[in-house]
């Protein structure tokens, strides 16, 4: 009798563990892939990259939500193999990576998350199943802007993109340039 009770308890524990595991996987899947399932309102093929976090799709200016990429005129630097400081236009490199990411000719789909202060549509955009916003942060060509913090930590750890050296946060870079113009 005791053996049967122990077996039932073990089976119950296994079921609970399985349910907990599936629950965690469901939350992970939803967080990573599912937020925007069925919500992609803007679709098209003809895309133009403005900079590392802005595209034009079907003549609509779209700001990639949750990320901030270096500006087109922004410079970053890293230490080279011979201990020399190497400067490069990280804003241009960020835009190049975004262009490469979307150039395959596959259809791009974006959500409509409202408008920003400049009238651009805020969106999560996809090429196939790839979330462009997430990939820009994960590969180190943008920083998370209230989102994608895990991807940012991974990019930092891997010294990917702008994280291979030093850079000024894009928001700080813009603030300094704005003050100089006054």
UniProtKB/TrEMBL annotation:
It holds the Pfam family SNase. Keywords: Plasmid. Residues 40-165 form the TNase-like domain. Transmembrane segments: none annotated. It comes from the Bacteria. This is Thermonuclease family C-terminal domain protein.
């Amino acid at each position: 009798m005791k053996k049967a009770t122990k077996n039932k308890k073990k089976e119950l524990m296994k079921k609970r563990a399985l349910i907990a595991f599936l629950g965690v996987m469901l939350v992970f899947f939803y967080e990573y892939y599912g937020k925007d399932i069925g919500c992609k309102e803007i679709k098209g093929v003809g895309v133009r990259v403005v900079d590392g976090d802005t595209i034009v799709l079907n003549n609509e200016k779209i700001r990639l939500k949750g990320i901030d990429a270096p500006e087109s005129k922004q410079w970053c630097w890293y230490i080279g193999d011979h201990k020399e400081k190497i400067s490069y236009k990280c804003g241009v490199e960020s835009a190049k990576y975004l262009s490469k990411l979307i150039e395959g000719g596959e259809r791009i789909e974006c959500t409509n998350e409202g408008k920003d202060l400049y009238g651009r549509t805020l969106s999560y955009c996809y090429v196939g199943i790839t979330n462009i916003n997430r990939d820009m942060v994960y590969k180190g060509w943008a920083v998370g802007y209230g989102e994608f913090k895990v991807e940012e930590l991974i990019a930092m750890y891997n010294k990917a993109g702008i994280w291979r050296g030093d850079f000024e946060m894009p928001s700080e870079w813009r603030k300094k340039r704005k003050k100089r113009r006054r």
